[in-house]
């Protein structure tokens, strides 16, 4: 199992960053993949608990389901489709160290069906997410 841990600060209010990152349709700019919400949550926020997003690159590669949604503090999701991944848990924790500032702590635990590729998957995911979040944070400076 591989563990990814990313911290990113934003010069914006916590609710604004949470609202942006919880919207599945905004994640394409972070991950550089085609991402869209394919199932709305039952609650007031269509991106909330139980919502499902499709991630692809020309074709759908996998689906992720939101398993915890506590606005504006926490989002957890797991892969829910038949992908070459045995286990994937993503967790985004948001906090506000001071007024108008947000700190995101993003962790992923991942294990593929072909263990030998796990370090490569970790490197690719970690690099892509870090770069995407830095790009987003630069919009608030």
Topology:
Elements: E1 2-10, H1 14-22, H2 28-31, E2 34-39, E3 52-56, E4 60-70, E5 74-79, E6 85-95, E7 102-112, H3 118-138
Antiparallel strand pairs: 1-7, 2-3, 3-4, 4-5, 5-6, 6-7
What is the CATH-assigned architecture? 2-Layer Sandwich
The averaged pLDDT comes out at 94
Beginning-to-end CA distance, first to last residue: 36 Å
Question: What is the number of domains?
Answer: 1
CATH class: Alpha Beta
The shape, in one word, is: globular
Q: How is the quaternary structure best described?
A: single chain
Which fold name corresponds to the CATH topology? Answer: Alpha-D-Glucose-1,6-Bisphosphate, Chain A, domain 4
The Cα radius of gyration reads 15 Å
Succession of helices and strands: EHHEEEEEEH
Q: Find the CATH superfamily.
A: START domain
Structure class: alpha+beta
Across the major sheet, the strand order is 1-7-6-5-4-3-2
Major β-sheet, in short?
A: 7 strands, antiparallel
Unreliable spans: none
What does this 3D model show about the protein?
It is a single chain. Strand 5 (74-79) and strand 6 (85-95) form a beta hairpin. This protein has 3 helices and 7 strands. The protein has helices at residues 14-22, 28-31, 118-138; strands spanning 2-10, 34-39, 52-56, 60-70, 74-79, 85-95, 102-112. It has 141 residues and is of the alpha+beta class. A 7-stranded antiparallel sheet has the order 1-7-6-5-4-3-2, covered by helices on one side. The protein has a single domain (2-138), classed as START domain (Alpha-D-Glucose-1,6-Bisphosphate, Chain A, domain 4), CATH 3.30.530.20.
